[in-house]
Write a structure and sequence with these properties.
mainly alpha; globular
Length: about 375
């Protein structure tokens, strides 16, 4: 019962972040318009990209380190944190592409996200999903409330709001984890980058699959279409991510239990996949067409829902490969999917625009599922 409660809280917490982002985009677009809100999206996608780079695969690398040597957990945490901080000066690249005021607040936001995201390994290991949920609700409340409080859209102002929200999230979560009470013993070393590199490459390969589409929409289509696509893909990625959030509490256990137990977990995930996807797709259609009024036909929502479904069937295959130190296979599959996705988007985006991008992402996801299952069967 306690494990089910933990899974439930973690699922809500993990689901809350994309759900909150979705609501922010929905009301941001509705109140300030697609073009204005697209200017914020244009900055934020690069903020999140650098935040991902500076993470350097720390989550999976540290979770494996914690499971092998729990007594040395905080030394590993601080050593990794301080070593990765050497990357932060590279965020100055924003000054080359954005006005000075926008670049300054973007860099501050990247630094705050760096600190907040670094706590994620401690949250997972100590199962503090409820504390993280409280932090996410607080951050969401500040940003969401600002959308209704501010009368006009100013890009710099909203970046400041995101900075305040992220800082408060970090303070709240830090107060719950109380990691500062542990002896701060750390070594700043380039070895951390070497050890984290396989996990970073692994994460990069996944990022290329899940994020490339939004950057190509930013490149090829109009700002208003960027906002529309952000709405759609955020909603459908919520469905996709739900599979991962359901399995996160089992992360440290998958490394320890037998293949038979993992197989039982797979079957349970398979059973909930179709009902969740159908219900989620229908809900997205209702919100987008009767509240946001995007004016897209039902084909968009069928294809969008089909993006989410395959993930439920291959998430644990990915974890099994990581358990057996076969990350290289995941990387090969991910880069294969990246090139397929980019090729299809380039072919379809100018003709079919947003629908072409959704179709490309969907086909890529089903190909990824096929490859993982073939690899599992034939090794």
């Amino acid at each position: 019962m306690r494990r089910l409660l933990t899974i439930g809280i973690n699922t809500i917490q993990g689901y809350a972040n994309p759900a909150f982002n979705f609501l922010i985009v929905v009301f941001g677009v509705k109140i300030f318009g697609k073009d204005d809100w697209a200017s914020l999206i244009n900055v934020m996608i690069w903020v999140f990209f650098l935040s991902f780079i500076f993470g350097w695969g720390n989550r999976d690398y540290l979770l494996r380190t914690y499971s092998k040597n729990p007594g040395n957990m905080y030394r590993a945490f601080f050593s990794n944190l301080f070593s990765r901080s050497l990357l932060l000066p590279f965020s100055g690249i924003f000054f080359l592409f954005f006005p000075v005021e926008i670049a300054i607040w973007s860099v501050i936001l990247i630094c705050l996200l760096f600190l907040y995201n670094s706590l994620n390994t401690l949250v997972i290991y100590h199962q503090k999903f409820g504390a993280q949920l409280v932090a996410e609700i607080l951050g969401f409340g500040i940003i969401f409330g600002s959308i209704f409080y501010l009368e006009t859209f100013e890009l710099e102002t909203f970046l400041q709001v995101y900075c305040i929200a992220t800082l408060l999230k970090f303070i709240v979560l830090s107060a719950q984890l109380q990691y500062w009470k542990e002896p701060i013993s750390a070594t700043i070393s380039l070895q951390e980058f070497k050890l984290g590199l396989p996990f970073f490459i692994l994460g990069l390969s996944g990022w290329l699959i899940s994020k490339t589409d939004i950057y190509m929409v930013d490149l090829y289509l109009k700002p208003s279409q960027l906002a529309e696509y952000q709405l759609l893909i955020t909603a459908f990625l919520m469905l996709q991510a739900l599979a991962a959030y359901i399995t996160i509490p089992f992360t440290k256990h998958v490394y320890r239990v037998s293949d038979e137990v993992v197989q039982k977990i797979k079957y349970k995930l398979y059973l909930v996949s179709l009902p969740l996807t159908i219900l989620g797709g229908f809900t997205i259609w209702l919100i987008m067409e009767y509240f946001v009024k995007l004016g897209f036909s039902y084909e968009y929502y069928i294809v969008g829902s089909s993006i989410a479904l395959p993930c439920y069937f291959y998430t644990l295959n990915v974890m099994e490969l990581m358990k057996n130190h076969q990350e290289r296979i995941i990387i090969y599959i991910s880069f294969f999917a990246f090139f397929i996705s980019v090729s299809m988007i380039v072919l379809l985006i100018e003709i079919y625009e947003i629908f072409g991008v959704l179709l490309s992402v969907s086909i890529t996801q089903w190909l990824v599922l096929l490859v993982y299952k073939l690899q599992r069967k034939f090794g």
